[in-house]
Write a structure and sequence with these properties.
Radius of gyration: 34 Å
Strand order of the largest sheet: 1-2-3-5-4
Number of strands: 5
Largest sheet: 5 strands, mixed
Strand content: 5-15%
Structural class: alpha+beta
Number of domains: 2
Mean pLDDT: 81
CATH class of the largest domain: Alpha Beta
Order of helices and strands: HHHHHHHHHHEHEEHEE
CATH architecture of the largest domain: 2-Layer Sandwich
Length: about 350
Amino acid sequence: MNVWEARWLRAFHLLYHACLALGLILSLGEPSGPGPAALGILAVMAAWHWFFVVRRPHLLGRPNPMAFHLVVICGLYAALVMTDRSFDVVIFGLMPQPYLMLAGPWSYVGAVATVLTTFVARGHLDKPDAIWQLAGSSGLVLAIGLFVNYLTRQSEQNRAVGVLEERARLAREIHDTIAQGLSGIITQLEAAEQAMPELAAVQKRITLAKELARDNLQEARRSVDALRPRPLADARLDAALAEVAERWSRTSGTTATVAVEGTPRPLAGEVAAALLRAAQEGLSNVAKHASADRVAITLTYMEDEVTLDVYDDGNGFDPAVPRAGYGLAAMRERAGTVGGTLTVESAPGEGTALCLRIPSV
């Protein structure tokens, strides 16, 4: 049970007892006031509901014993109204109870039984049109129950979709930050191991590895908190891309350049993050697979869209051949979240061109 369900449950329990109190107030306003029998039934109704329903939320929805408790409460209500008509108002607190205490088809059976109880208590079954009134009232109560259950199912589905989307977001963030960072750290440490006789080279590689570790620790914390990527926290997208490219060039030994075409304009946070992550993933793939001599990143602002192109002159590959890894799939998922598309053009020995297009809003 989530927080909102618990609040609604408390609200309907409070409504039930408030209606009992209101009925007592109305009865006290009558010249004769409530009799001992009415007071006794009222006390039993309140105590029974409190002890067997409110205090036992883990049993809600189970026909055994909640169906029995609903029958008892409805019987007490009928006796109370036949004793003192001032307590008619209690029906407003009683009607939601079948949907709280029972689940599935049993809740509808309980609702119809509750409506029937009100007719018995008020003596309406003797009227000529009682069957039509009973059918109409039951139909209305069932329609309300069906609508509430529909909203509940939709809420549960939306909550499940939200959980899946959050898992996918974390998977993308982990891949785009922690996984890439660890890969870079391993590369630097392997290079340091190979340069072991040269102390200056070893120190340089270790320094770069420590810098990568610090940066990725910050990114991991920001990802968990769903914050903007660190390079975007205090800079525009073009400056953030330049920072990423400069750092990548230092750690990989391959030159990466950044060019901006068109007139820069402010972008939504999730759009800028998607473009930056695409550049980071493109650079990571180049470092791992391409053996490229240069990489060119181009950010283009057009009237109806923003595009990011990452081109390298490396080995290339056949896009039609399935590849292991989560990189391109994560990029396509991230692009889809902002209404964008990702295309990859490559061929063995001819380099790779990656293009992310995001329409302007």
